[in-house]
Amino acid sequence: MDDHAGGPHRHLSRRSLIASGALAAGALGASAPAIGAAFGGSPARAAAGVTKKITIYAEQLPGNLFGYGLAPGQATVPGPVLEMYEGDTLEITLVNTTTQRLSIHPHGVDYSTDSDGSPFNASFNNPGETRTYVWRSHEMVAAAGRRYMPGSAGYWHYHDHAMGTDHGTGGVAKGLYGALIVRRRGDILPSKQFTAVFHDMMINNKMAPATPMFEANLGERVEWIAIGHGNLFHTFHLHAHRWADNRTGMLEGPSDPSLVVDNKDLNPGSSFGFQVLAGEGVGPGAWMYHCHVQTHSDGGMAGIFLVRNADGSMPPGAEEAIHRFQGHTHTHGS
Ligand SMILES: [Cu+2]
User: Fold this and answer.
1) CA of 208 to the centre of ligand 1 (A)
2) What is the pLDDT of residues 44-61, one digit of tens each?
3) The domain that contains 110 carries what CATH number?
4) Which helix (H) or strand (E) holds 209?
């Protein structure tokens, strides 16, 4: 992971100790005063990370949707997964190619008022305008009294905050949202990522059977990022897989007290993520993911997590299951 840090100038010694899970507790305890002294001030922390510059294009899409993309003509709903490591800065040049006022507003990271994406702070793009937003992040620091000030790491998200209303209600409704992951150095990286946004009665602005079918081969490490938007209460449920209800979704040792779940509240504005090995302990198959509010799953908030055989071939029964799902009648809130 250190190659991501961008060069030999980085203060790898103590920061690496903070990042490597097994060493973290002891190392932090032993060297707490030094860490506090070295990284206690925010300018020092900001200077230590790298700055990644990206350009995002906000575009109008067919079907009265809007999306964010990393290149012209590549906008999607949801937008691209944006990732950074704790301590790094993301400098986003947002190009508004549309005729609407819009912005990009992040959850979980640090920013100044002129990067918060809200019209209230005059932080938005007029139609056709290009504007830069700066998202900073910080690592965990040891504080007095055996406490730790949390770092920015987490499964967060970003969304419009200016289209339609001063809260971006119009932009969010039309697809201007996506996942933002801040990783701690040493975190395990997945081989696939799925973003599922539960929004009104839709998943990624689609209803079953048009909801996304997420695919992986047996044993692949897949990362789910679940995000809630809109006006309804949802619960995210994944069949045949489970995760720890903590930052990473993984137990960090035999005595990790995290609750293990396969269903979790997903209210508007909230987000979480986790990694699973596809089909671990249960085998390949067409597994369902859905909102567990019954009128919502019946109304179209359901999709398929297709776990193929390890060689990529279809497991027995999966084609039939997919056909049944696609022919499945969804009632609408009856
Ligand atoms: Cu729901």
Assistant:
1) 13
2) 444 468 999 999 999 999
3) 2.60.40.420
4) none
